[in-house]
Specification:
It is a single chain. With about 290 residues, this protein is mostly helical. It folds into two domains: about 1-55, no CATH class; about 65-190 and about 210-285, Serine Threonine Protein Phosphatase 5, Tetratricopeptide repeat, CATH 1.25.40. The protein has 14 helices and two strands, in the order H-E-E-H-H-H-H-H-H-H-H-H-H-H-H-H. It has a two-stranded antiparallel sheet. A hairpin with a 5-residue loop joins strand 1 (about 20-25) and strand 2. The longest helix has 24 residues, at about 65-90.
Length: about 290
């Protein structure tokens, strides 16, 4: 589409005089005149416009190659098939529903993921309050009230983890609007790992996104810790932009989150959230 728009605004070179004139002063102040064909100027302008267009849309290119995306899809399809086989043999295997729910979610089957996570709680009620994955699946299945309720219950399980409060805010924002979500931000008294306190300030309207990123960039921390903080910052700045209906901003930051080198192999929780970033980025780019 950008190429179409570029053509609409391109300069009709043939309608201009055949020559243009540029002047400049040398060191002695003598003015020289250079004759440049009009078509050359037109080509130069078009070239500049093309470069600007490419730069503006650089983030539209998926941070993963087609081969990487195909590999991910095959991985979770195989996992789904394996979990299906276990469930058929043992329909009361909680872990099988957990595996299958994750596979469904990572494949973008959000309703099916909710159903499997629900089954886990049905088989083991003790999993209810701590089941943050079910809250995220509800969010993407667009059942925002249920999602918010899940994160409220999780707060009774863990009142330190601001990442849970972030998801409740996102769910409340979708369900009832920004004002209600901001008024209902869960309260935290204990310290939490960075960058979650800063991100929480973003949702409270107390800090700008760029300040969060600048602070991470300037912090005296290891490269590994910086990459870790940048992942979560880019992810949640992007998700906040998404609920604020700013898709271009959301795509930009989610693109950076998916490109992050730490999250995909950092462990179960970070990897799950990396998949969330990937899925949301793809949802936005497929709109």
């Amino acid at each position: 589409m950008w190429y179409h728009h570029l053509n609409e605004s391109a300069i009709p070179i043939h309608s201009h005089p055949p020559m243009s004139f540029l002047t400049f002063d040398d060191e002695k102040g003598v003015s020289d005149m250079i004759h440049i064909p009009r078509y050359a100027m037109g080509l130069a302008i078009c070239h500049s416009l093309l470069l600007a267009a490419f730069a503006a849309h650089a983030d539209d290119k998926h941070p993963l190659t087609p081969a990487q995306r195909e590999k991910i899809e095959m991985k979770w399809t195989d996992e789904l098939n394996a979990a299906n086989a276990i469930v058929e043999k043992n329909p009361d295997d909680v872990n099988a529903y957990s595996r299958r729910g994750d596979a469904h979610f990572f494949l973008g089957h959000f309703d099916e993921a909710v159903a499997d996570y629900d089954k886990m709680v049905e088989l083991d009620a003790d999993q209810d309050a701590s089941h943050w994955r079910r809250g995220i699946a509800w969010f993407y299945a667009e059942n925002y009230d249920e999602a918010a309720g899940q994160f409220e219950r999780y707060h009774s399980f863990d009142d330190v983890d601001r990442e849970n409060g972030i998801w409740r805010y996102l769910s409340q924002h979708r369900a009832k609007g920004k004002k209600t979500a901001r008024q209902g931000l869960l309260k935290y008294k204990k310290d939490d790992r960075e960058p979650f306190p800063s991100v929480y300030q973003l949702f409270a309207g107390e800090i700008e996104p760029q300040k969060i990123l600048d602070d991470i960039d300037q912090a005296k921390i290891s490269d590994a810790e910086r990459e870790k903080r940048l992942f979560y910052a880019e992810l949640y700045i992007g998700l906040n932009a998404a609920v604020e209906d700013e898709p271009e901003v959301a795509r930009k930051h989610l693109h950076e989150a998916v490109k992050n080198t730490w999250a995909p192999s950092a462990g179960y929780g970070p990897h799950y959230m990396w998949e969330v970033g990937r899925l949301h980025y793809e949802l936005l780019t497929n709109e």
